[in-house]
Amino acid sequence: MNLTELLEKVNSKKTFFEFVAALKKDKEDEDNKEKVNPTSPYSSGFNGWENETIPDFLDSIHAYGQDNEDIDLDWKSFALLLYSGKFYE
After folding, report:
1. How distant, in Å, are the alpha carbons of 32, 37, 53, 70 from that of 76?
2. Which of 6, 34, 43, 82 has the fewest CB atoms within 10 Å, i.e. the most exposed one?
3. What are the DUF7660 domain coordinates in residue numbering (predicted)?
4. Distance separating the N- and C-terminal Cα atoms of the chain
């Protein structure tokens, strides 16, 4: 199941942490692919990650949260915030 599908299923603590584990695995997979065949520094990585460092990841979460005022703080919304750290600039 891909990250978007898992994101759509988040509705509890259990499914939230399943999503977090999959997100971590997705980043590890991309890092391994980048070691073998690096992508351009001007594009996202193999799995679509834009942010390589924790500070960049957290900055993206912060920016996404600030730019999207309609977010309710439930488990699914929190998962969406974490997911946004992957692609939001």
Report:
1. 28, 34, 24, 13
2. 43
3. 12-89
4. 25
Dihedral over alpha carbons 66, 69, 75, 78 (to 10 degrees): -10
Q: Which amino acid is at 80?
A: L
Mind giving me the DSSP string for 23-62?
HHHHHHHHHHHHHHSPPPTTS--TT-----SHHHHHHHHH
Mean per-residue pLDDT, 40-46: 86
The pTM of the full predicted model, rounded to 2 decimals, is: 0.82
Under a CB-based contact definition with an 8 Å cutoff, are residues 45 and 39 in contact?
yes
Q: Where are the domains of the chain?
A: 3-87
Q: Looking at residue 32, what is its pLDDT?
A: 96
Enter the DSSP assignment of 69.
T
